[in-house]
Amino acid sequence: MSGNESKFSSELVAKVNELWKRYPHKKAALIPAMHLIQAERDGWFSDETVADTAALFGLPDMHVRGVVGFYDMFHSEPVGRHVVRLCKTLSCKLRGADGLIQHVNERYGVKNGETTQDGCFTFKHFECLGHCANAPMMLVDDEKHLDLTADKLDSVLGGLS
Fold it and tell me: DSSP code of 135?
């Protein structure tokens, strides 16, 4: 390890060490480790978290920043307590996703990439979540919600705290 271990919890460091054992090179474990790091660091990668992650892996900051910028499951700005991803690709669009997006915009006062005023959730449009047969669908954190209607969506979002 790099000496920057103390910047992360001992539990996270232990999990990263386990990841490193599964890959031929430490760098190959970066993405799974970044999921763990993001969860520990309030759901996003601040400049400090990018630097700490880069130091842990012995990589340049720009490498970690590039991964954060490329993958939309990583966040470079603070997010709400939950992240709501609503699929907007063709199958979902044909089955009402545009109406659901408009519903979220109007009812909850958030557009793509925005967080509700109470910090409950950040709303994101997403490219294909892989459940075209059950479109439209959304992912709330890691939980799938299929065959959405406005009522189902409200039931799910209304239950978040």
Answer: -
| 20 CB burial (10 A radius; 0-12, 13-18, 19+) | middle
| DSSP type of residue 30 | H
pLDDT in tens, 47-63: 999 999 999 999 999 99
Residues 104 and 129 in one domain: yes
Contact present, 32 and 74 (Cβ < 8 Å)? no
Domain end point (choices 15, 50, 70): 70
Cβ atoms of 65 and 50 within 8 Å: the answer is yes
DSSP label at residue 133: G
Judge residue 101's burial from the number of C-beta atoms within 10 Å of its C-beta, 0-12 exposed, 13-18 middle, 19 or more buried. buried
CA 99 to chain CA centroid, Å, is 23
Q: What domain range is 88 assigned to? A: 82-158
1 has a pLDDT exceeding 90: no
The first and second tokens of residue 40, run together, are 């520990």
